[in-house]
Amino acid sequence: MENYNQNQIFGANVVENTGTHAVSKSFMSNVFLWMFIGLGLSAAFAFLFVLNLDWMMYMVKPEGGLNILGWVVMLAPLGFVMLMSFGFARLSATALSVLFLLYSAINGISFSFILLAYTASSVLGCFLSAAAMFGVMAVMGYTTNKDLTGFGRIMMMGVIGIVIAMLINFFMNSDTMDYVISIIGVMVFTGLTAYDVQKLKRIGAGIEYEGTGAAQVKKLAILGALSLYLDFINIFLFLLRLFGGKRD
Known about the structure:
The protein is mostly helical. It has one domain. It has nine helices and no strands. It is globular, with a radius of gyration of 18 Å. The relative contact order is 0.20. Residues 3-19 have low confidence and may be disordered.
């Protein structure tokens, strides 16, 4: 599971201006475009490595387990998220774009290890379920008039709780606890989807009001895409942990 801090990425409150609906829609379109590019790149690299098992041998030891390159591939996505989040103010729009694309590609390679453990039908089923859940909550977050700020804070507390619980269960190795964590994980990241979309909508509405430059708008769109990418990926991975059929 990958974590992030919304407040660090987007900063303080953003003013919503009802006269900037066209700008907001354009911004949201760019956010989802970048998100879909990231997901497509991850899927392409995941299946590329699944179909070429010889490539994966460079990341595992002959006796089993990951070698140094394998651990780099598995841990690098977290490093990319932290770099993009904490380096947002200093990085250029071009650098942020390249980092996001590299992150998506390497994340796809790391997913190939996971996909090999599950049947193709269960992976497809969980992916379609995640897409449906994400889509419904994205629409709800975009169309609701209810302020989800307080709800989002609760969801972020849930993310922290999940991380702590997963660390504890790493040592306990409890199947029951793993099952409970996965259920909560699906609920938390499904809820975060609605909150993130509403927050991005408000950012889009505030762009013209605040006179935000084109480069900054692009950076905000990429970081917005990253937040939604993470929401979707975590929903998918937790569903896979719950319902994925393991290969024999």
